[in-house]
């Protein structure tokens, strides 16, 4: 039995340990030392020469997609399986010849499918046709299992909050605020989530919901607005429908757009 040398490139410890545990159950998988960011991966690949890398899309120092582009152009180019909590990068990932795209939290059944593709490529040297890869990308973007998503899971967003993963109903989000290199997301239940995503990325994910950018550092759920309170120089404060009556700054320029949006609703 050929041993498949496998490397995990993942900065989140819990996600890394979960994937490593699942891979350790496979007798033909040989786990190599992991990489905690894209730069470490580029240093380890020439030394360890993995057959396949499970590569997180979002990592510090060098993003997974950037690292994959650099590996693709290098003499040693392992198979790539992208791993992420988000689905919008699937088609771009397959443009980099990724063999698969896994969504977090990992499904053991879905991982088994990925391993079958890896074994086929490594042991038999079979190339995945371009059309098949594109179909796999679309399938992978839908849900990390071959079965339909449970009704209670549909529409929910998955966030990395420190060492844990948190599922959030977008409608339950009150607002999000950018603080240095992270965003803080507050829900109607008083939950606070810290995410490494950018505010722009969150805004894109919530594009089909009623969210508004009142200030460059804030994103607010329009359905959770209680009132608009005049402040100074044409600016306002947004008062939310929570117990604390949280106030969010509304710039003068954004105020015009928000009033227009509310009048048309």
Feature tags:
single chain; 265 residues; alpha/beta; Rossmann fold; OB fold (Dihydrolipoamide Acetyltransferase, E2P); 2 domains; five-stranded parallel β-sheet; elongated
Explain what this protein looks like in three dimensions.
- The protein is of the alpha/beta class.
- The protein is built from eight helices and 15 strands.
- The strands form four sheets. A five-stranded parallel sheet has the order 2-1-3-4-5, with helices on both faces. The protein has a five-stranded antiparallel sheet with strand order 10-9-8-12-11. A three-stranded antiparallel sheet has the order 13-14-15.
- Helix 2 packs parallel to helix 3.
- The longest helix has 17 residues, at 108-124.
- It is elongated.
CATH architecture of the largest domain: 3-Layer(aba) Sandwich
The CATH class name of the largest domain reads: Alpha Beta
**Strand pairing plus helix content: what structural class?**
alpha/beta
* Main sheet: strands, sense, barrel: 5 strands, parallel
The first-to-last residue Cα distance is: 63 Å
Can you tell me the CATH topology of the largest domain?
A: Rossmann fold
Using DSSP, what is the number of strands?
A: 15
List SSEs in N-to-C order.
Answer: EHEHEHEHEHHEEEEEHEEEEEH
Number of domains: 2
Task: Please give the share of residues in helix.
Answer: 25-40%
The unreliable regions are 126-154
* Strand neighbour order, sheet with most strands: 2-1-3-4-5
Shape: elongated
Rg from C-alpha positions? 21 Å
Helices, strands, pairings?
Blueprint: E1 4-9, H1 13-24, E2 29-31, H2 38-48, E3 52-56, H3 64-72, E4 79-84, H4 90-95, E5 100-103, H5 108-124, H6 130-142, E6 157-161, E7 164-168, E8 173-179, E9 182-187, E10 192-195, H7 199-205, E11 211-215, E12 218-221, E13 225-230, E14 236-240, E15 247-250, H8 252-264
Parallel strand pairs: 1-2, 1-3, 3-4, 4-5
Antiparallel strand pairs: 6-7, 8-9, 8-12, 9-10, 11-12, 13-14, 14-15
Helix pairs in contact: 2-3
